[in-house]
Amino acid sequence: MATQSNKVALVTGGSRGLGRDMAIQLAKKGFDIIITYHTNADEAGKVVQEISALGKKAKAFPLDVAQSKSFDAFVGVVKKSLTDDFGTTQLFALVNNAGIGTHTSIADTTEEVFDNMVNIHLKAPYFITQKLLPLLADSGSIVNISSGLARFSYPNYAPYAIMKSAVESLTRYQAQEFGIRKIRVNTVAPGAIATDFGGGAVRDNKELNDRIASMTALGRVGLADDIGSVVAFLCSEDAKWVNAQRIEVAGGVHI
Question: What is the DSSP string of the chain?
Fold first, then answer.
């Protein structure tokens, strides 16, 4: 397996669920890791311990991606940590993963819910990437996390899904603009995953779980560890000629 010796990857929302698995899989791929968490410092600490047990360095920092005014201070923390904790001045990979779900019809969506989705799922990856760009190494990698819901439609997911559609457009524009520095930008779009995301509905609601599994070629819903290895691949030099792509990791749902 190719390794990324002394290269640091940053994963937003890395304390649980998909982000946790992405961070661990990146560490297994040879990266040192920075994760962010919103409120759960204990879970973030456990991820740091798991990565340390793999022989890689890791740090966790709080970040509320809904608060764009905090991004400059966060970048300062990352810059200092790169030097003090990792012995480098650069990030090699950035994974814009942090997010929350919402479940509401268009008719019932409040402006507050809509604006929160914009802030978390679109404004955050746009401006976090912009502000981290000076720290990102030439020939580095960015992975933006979208959703299968950007391709197919389920009731009551519009405020979430349309932001993810915008993220996919953002990926293409970032790939075009950052190509001069040989920075690759790709989208990973998970299908339905059995985690605590969205209140754990896919994990805990057997009827929903079975229904999605019945519409999926591989006959089940996704698990967190179905996603992290794909993200780690895209961040690594194994994917050096993969750029501006949307990879749906969903087991073949709604083919």
Answer: ----TT-EEEETT-SSHHHHHHHHHHHHTT-EEEEEESS-HHHHHHHHHHHHHTT--EEEEE--TT-GGGHHHHHHHHHHHHHHHHS-S-EEEEEE---------TTT--HHHHHHHHIIIIIHHHHHHHHHGGGEEEEEEEEEE--GGGTS--TT-HHHHHHHHHHHHHHHHHHHHHGGGT-EEEEEEE--BSSSGGGGHHHH-HHHHHHHHHTBTTSS-B-GGGTHHHHHHHHSGGGTT--S-EEEESSSB--
